[in-house]
Task: structure prediction
Amino acid sequence: MEFRYLPMTEKDKQEMLDTIGINKTEELFEDIPEKVRFKGELGIKPPSNEYKLTKELTELANKNVNLKSHTSFLGAGVYDHYIPSVVDHVISRSEFYTAYTPYQPEISQGELQAIFEFQTMICELTAMDVANSSMYDGGTALAEAVNLSAGTTRKKKVIVSSTVHPESRAVIQSYANGPGVEIIEIGHENGVTDLKALAAELDENTAGVVLQYPNFFGQIEPLAEVRELLDTQKKAMMIVSSNPLALGYMNPPGEFGADIVVGDAQVFGIPAQFGGPHCGYFATTKKLMRKVPGRLVGQTKDEQGRRGFVLTLQAREQHIRRDKATSNICSNQALNALASSVAMSSLGKQGVKKMAWTNIQKTAYMKKALEDNGVNVAYTGPFFNELVINLGNDVQNANKKLLEKGFIGGYDLGASYNELAGHMLIAVTEVRTKDEIDNFAQELGDING
Amino acid sequence: MANQDFPLIFEHSQESRTGFSLPEMDVPEVDLTDMFDERYIRETEADLPEVSELQIMRHYTALSTRNHGVDSGFYPLGSCTMKYNPKMNEDIARLAGFSHIHPYQDEETIQGALELMYDLQTSLAEITGMHTVTLQPAAGAHGEWTGLMMIRAFHEANGDFGRTKVIVPDSAHGTNPASATVAGFEAVTVKSDDRGLVDLEDLKRVVGEDTAALMLTNPNTLGLFEEHILEMAEIIHDAGGKLYYDGANLNAILGYARPGDMGFDVVHLNLHKTFTGPHGGGGPGSGPVGVTEEFAAYLPKPVLIKKGEQYGFDYDRPKSIGRVKPYYGNFGINVRAYTYIRTMGAEGLKKVSEYAVLNANYMMRRLEKEFDLPFSQHCKHEFVLSGKRQKKLGVRTLDIAKRLLDFGYHPPTIYFPLNVEEALMVEPTETESKETLDAFVDAMIQISNEAKEDPEIVQEAPHTTVVSRMDETTAARKPVLRYNKGS
Ligand SMILES: Cc1ncc(COP(=O)(O)O)c(C=O)c1O
Result:
């Protein structure tokens, strides 16, 4: 079998063996103890040629119902949005995608500057002072924020609203088990955090309060009221997970005095791809700048006084500080941060606002369409691009029926909230048309009977 | 902005210029201020750039030319396995059936994706000799932390709460001790001996009843195989500890040896190294974790299983450490790695390691005449030189690295591992031709001669790059981390 990724010829190999002074490559592996040397052949599928493998994997991909073959109203943290063509053209430039962490600034200005621009855009959207170069995803970014708040305040209790994405809450819990941070979950009322429960839990032992804005149900959390509560416990940090697209229209968490704002930039230029890779972001205040996990790009000058960019404040990071680092993160999601930057540049100041606003308008239209079809919309407060409906019967069954009509239905809330069995979470983004919304609402009305 | 500064995207911006084409607002509009309390509406717009589509393309194309990737030239960055990223993988990952599927779709509608993941995790289990593999962790460090949390859960389930320490060699990557801390352990260091291997006597000294695990990279970060791996496994296991394998260097031993057969209990892989996931300018990666049977119950949930002919997720895992990431891992990277494994098969993967190791040894033998080689045995896929000799001439390893830029190369990893003075860590990978290896060695020899004859040319390098050396001190002292209009 020929292997097109392996360039050595037999002649090359012989010359190299001669230089090394050995007869066979096997001799280079003699330091592996005989007992652990692998003798057989690995039991995996045989090598395949490019044409045949492409055909096979294309068939495998075609087995999946996808967001392009069907009309989707599924969101719950991962969204189907307009992705400008330029995004994929830029991230397909192999100078970007075949490079690694820009440790050599002289030959990495492209990546460094792109990340610096990304940091700036995230600061603009969130109204925070500092943003890092990316995190794995919104969920782990939030978990790192929780541990940061505990580490910085030297308090061990963090209050998390149940309106935060259930999988982010699960990740928070796993991460909190490391340093032993106590996670207190509080309930929801009419689709938003139960402020009375929050007030009851908030005390001098509280390191931070975690909210999602807009929350998992698509509802707008009352950050102004939360801020007032937090002003009674000044040490406790306000940690907000935000869909950055929503912040094109909504007042950003920074305006409510948030200490840390995190989220996922998947909404900007990154396809759903079964949940990853997406692009976590992490934004905070100047005060916490030296506690930020992950990489930061800073502006400086070269010897000739030309503007340039470098990785900076590295004394926070694992390769310098080892066990004292602020986080263990090393590889991040740089290429996806680039994709998001390109999408945000395409949208620009006007586009991001317009896109956010279109999401709200189309969701508002969906709400009306559903109500006209006799479907019960659960909550009455303001929302971004998601709605909770009470079907009163099996959501999975409803989704099966919707699939037959060419729809990917909503998220079954009963899977993560006992009290919401029979409820479905529906997302309406700018890509859905009026006809699609009408038809979907009508189908749901029919299913609802 | 001085004239010679390369513009930021923000500096191309002009009020009301557009680069987007949004779907129509085809529903009747409502007054949102009826719905939204004005406190929740943005007062000032987010100041994103307003540029045309061509301006975007020109800007980012120009940026790309100011960046060096594997496709631009040789990239022997030790420990990072900067091998060629196959183009076919990119095409497969972009198929709509892989790139536009939603993690919450009904399992029946995503059987193709689940089949791919299942076959990948099974293949990785075979390659590493482990019982079960999870694809959930997003990168190597994430895998390390996941593995350590499992080890912690295992000890605690045995009522063993006193195992608070994780042993890491002095040559270990920084993520190892950092992950130990994040997982709630204390990291303790074990020394290397004069052959660059873990010092068994020191290991016996630091191991004890408080040992939760030893984290080991094998071959280690010096590119040397830990020959005493079986004795080490015994020392750790006899003390009740577990053995953790940092798989960053798996590219050296594919088909030659498997961590599972060496006594490792928990293993992470870096699919963005060994299995051609592109490094993306820093990420995304993928860091699957494999475990022995006794750890299977602790794997993060959900676990992907096969029920008859159907694939599906199992959430009923009472002993699981929980979730480590939303959804199911960096699927897009996993698709690329899978495509690569299917392209190579067992035969190809073994050749990968054969050539990765041959290439490194060849370069090492050519270079040892000009540079100090602290450990002289055969290496595996990478080797570490010391720039000590050149430093005496006033040329530091950093200078050598910068001078290599003038030849169109990305330099090796420098100043790591920490136990080698003025370290230069070279990892050629198997995808480079002999001509490339020779040209790089020739450049290194030329630089060594320059250090003797004309050190300034090295000390003042690079001479040919778009910018010269950066003032990193000011960058850290007075951090400017975002663009501010008019500054
Ligand atoms: C030896 C070693 N261990 C761990 C890591 C961490 O992997 P990642 O960057 O994927 O988190 C790296 C690479 O960066 C490495 O070289």
Remarks:
- The CA atoms of residues 215 and 430 of chain A lie 19 Å apart.
